[in-house]
Amino acid sequence: xxxxxxxxxxxxxxxxxxxxxxxxxxxxxxxxxxxxxxxxxxxxxxxxxxxxxxxxxxxxxxxxxxxxxxxxxxxxxxxxxxxxxxxxxxxxxxxxxxxxxxxxxxxxxxxxxxxxxxxxxxxxxxxxxxxxxxxxxxxxxxxxxxxxxxxxxxxxxxxxxxxxxxxxxxxxxxxxxxxxxxxxxxx
Length: 187
What we know:
The protein has nine helices and four strands. The chain is of the alpha+beta class and 187 residues long. The protein has one domain: Glutaredoxin (3-Layer(aba) Sandwich).
């Protein structure tokens, strides 16, 4: 059994994570993608309307191209959603967590843990959204872990953003509809 509250408290806010684990080159890559992420007005309204507190832990690596291309999206979602509290945990900082949560037999990041206000695990998502896998399949090339040096094009970034927003919405709806939280909040 995982103590999600303790893990969340050890994890870092977005900027502090990059300050601690990223080199100047890493921070520059993350900033380049971050500057290009845009939530649509509908997406901003959707996530801004979330009412259940949703702590979110992202297991990541500042060096990881998939993290470079996707974690800034999570930051934008959290910035637009007061109910979402995003924290990042370096993949190497918690070896037990890293080793227990593999994807297809590997230690892939980003891996996102969605939690309830009372620290129950609602779900996980990662390492890449479908849009990235589709692009990789269409290209039929590329390393297993992109460098993040070349940021995704606008259409791919928009598709990936939409997929992440949909996953956050799915988790928020889970939190809104669960009996124990509805009873607690009287709704």
